[in-house]
Design goal:
39% strand; Immunoglobulin-like; mainly beta; nine-stranded antiparallel beta sheet; 526 residues
Length: 526
Amino acid sequence: MAIRISRNDAGNCINFVGSTQPAYWNACLSGQVNSEDNTLVDVVNDIRSDSLGEVEFEFYAVPYTDFVDKDDNAFDNAADCAAYITANANVSSNTGRFSLSPLDTLDFSLDPTNTTVLLDNGDAFAANSIRAVANDEGYIDILKHSSDIVIYGDLRVEKATIDNIQVTQVIATAVNELNALFSQTGGSDGVAPVITSATTVNLTEGDSLNYTLSATNGVGYEWDNIPSGVVTVEGNVRKLIGGSTLSVGTYDMTAKAVNYFGQDSETISLVVSSPPYSNTKSVNFQNQDYLGANASLLDATLGRSGSGSGSGDAWTISVWFKPSTSSSGQTLFYFGASDVTNSGFIEVKYIGNNDRIRLRYGSNNNYIQLTSPTDSLTHSTWNHILISYDGGTTGASSGDISNYYSRFKIFIDGSQQTTSNSHSNYGYSSAISGQNLRVGRFSSGNYMQDNCRVDELAVWGSDQSSNISSIYNSGSTHNLSDLGLPPDHWWRMGDDDTYPNIQDNVGTATFVMYNMTAADIVTDAP
């Protein structure tokens, strides 16, 4: 939307409609063509420039095509635009110098806010925008404050009044009295500024800030405690940009708006949040595809040194799984020894001929085994699976076999399954340590295939069965780092990953894709 340059109905203010800039009193601004690019326009605040001793911009390096005149007409070039701004920002009821006759009188007064000098001929000027001087003829000239441009010339001392009271009839004193009226530095009748822009600014981590401080009756602006990487725009101290390097957190800045009657100070809180969670990808498996990682990195999470000793040996595995229609048994997840006959492992297996999930814990000679009911998984559909172990003993007494089974729970889509249980030699009571960590392969064979897909695999070194509702989240994937107890390892399975590596978003156990291509990271997710 273009910025329309328009004066108010009273003709004493210029407005930049469509921008966040405030209205400016008459005789405050002038336009100019930018010195480095003749297609850009600068708008100088003459009053602030004069008082501060350096050029102060209200707009800096704005394309002239961003402006239109009061009737929405475009400008032909930057020079025309700058001239229009100057003309409309410095309007009086006379053209050029107005020479007063010996009979002409002028009465000067202030409006109720002490911010505008009123003349009895209908003209009005912003406080501090005009000044009185004695000319060589012994008369009074009224000039634009920031230049030697005469607005009214040759005002006789005896014809000058303030609030209808004649000024002192000594020209030097009369000039001082007029300038005291023109130069307002504050008073009980004035209106202090009020900051009106938002005091809480939300920013997503990695994005850039674009914030403008605004205030009613604001003239000058200041900032304190701006964080590193956030800066003000040259020529517009009210505008903040940058911030793309800020970490997640809250950054409190102090903003001040100042005028001749006081100031307003507010804390502006810049709240930087993590990017919104997005899950769009998964990993597809076929033929002899599988993922492998350094299993020893999960020893502290899934391993144990002997028979289960309690909660310190507990773990939880959570995964989203989209099974195919294959009837073969396929290993979904494996952790443990290379010697599966005599040493321990954890295997989660998909039994495709009747759509069940099976957990085997132990070795092939000694194990506990739990299997979900027939058709507990829906093939060609995303299913959430959570398996937990409470860390207790898992063998080898025939009288305790029911207790061994109770150490484990299987949940599908948030519901605990009534499992079919079996064992070999009354369970497993030895250590489990990481030699192989795989998705889609047993120690050898039992590959996952026929376009089965896996997403959002997570592992905890604790029993999270009591938190199944939060983890399953009514079937919506979510940022697991936001949980009360985040996982110890978490693989997004495609999102933010680059072939051939599937990154561990919490730990350092990066999976490598074997016998696969980049095309096996697919756009399909629960």
